[in-house]
Write a structure and sequence with these properties.
Elements: H1 3-10, E1 14-15, E2 32-33, H2 39-53, E3 59-64, H3 67-81, E4 89-93, H4 101-110, E5 114-118, H5 121-133, E6 139-142, H6 148-155, E7 161-164, H7 184-195, H8 203-222
Parallel strand pairs: 1-2, 3-4, 3-5, 5-6, 6-7
């Protein structure tokens, strides 16, 4: 949030922030160029899925106690309100710590059928694994910021049901049916193979590539002067 007055005063665009923070979107600032979906858009899509497709009405929220977590909490509350619902429990943890016990106790007591998680991969993984140890198995939903690959690595082998949203498409490094013959995924994969053959295409890298494509397009349209 602290960059907003600095960027505005300097009149230099910032392109493609790795955040869904609503305060970087409203009110609109011409120097803040957002490309990824907002946290509100992500949580709304997830809540619609949980309520409409999975037929779950008891939804809790586990969030990091800071602006990031508050944003996800607000987005979840707004999305649930559209279905005539509200969180059955809210559990939190302090940023920089891994103390999930109090939040887990509160959410387990509510008998939530699903838990919306707004945190980091290490803390969310700990919460999910602790839940499993205690015989609690709701559906766990995580926003894209958590990092699906790292979360999966931390979870290892588990029977818990975990859902993670993405704001970029699969990188499709094998040229599969996931994308058009010369879509942005294939372009990214080809360039990775050419310039960084030892690296594996991934969702975060593809998002960075998309951001850079937007930046280059803007520079080309602006012209040399």
């Amino acid at each position: 949030m602290k960059i907003i007055p600095l960027v505005t005063e300097a009149a230099i665009p910032v392109v493609g922030m790795f955040t869904g923070a609503s305060r970087l979107r409203k009110p609109i600032n011409r120097y803040l160029v957002n490309i990824r979906a907002s946290c509100y858009q992500e949580t709304r899509a997830a809540v619609d899925f949980l309520v409409q497709k999975k037929d779950l009405s008891r939804v809790a929220v586990f969030y990091q106690y800071d602006e990031y977590g508050f944003d996800g909490l607000r987005g979840t509350e707004l999305a649930l309100k559209e279905h005539g619902l509200k969180p059955v429990a809210k559990g939190s943890y302090i940023r920089g710590t891994k103390n999930v016990q109090k939040g887990l106790d509160e959410i387990m007591a509510s008998k939530a059928q699903a838990v919306v998680m707004i945190g980091t991969y290490d803390v969310c993984a700990r919460f999910i694994l602790r839940s499993e140890q205690r015989g609690y198995s709701p559906l766990f939903y995580n926003v894209s910021f958590v990092g699906s690959e790292e979360l999966a690595r931390r979870l290892g082998s588990t029977d818990q049901e975990v859902l993670v949203t993405q704001v970029a498409p699969p990188p499709a490094p094998d040229g599969s049916e996931h994308s058009a013959p010369d879509g942005v995924q294939q372009q990214y994969a080809r360039l990775m193979q050419r310039y960084s053959p030892d690296s594996r295409p991934n969702v975060a890298g593809l998002e960075g590539y998309i951001n850079a494509r937007v930046l280059v397009e803007g520079l080309e349209r602006a012209g040399r002067t």
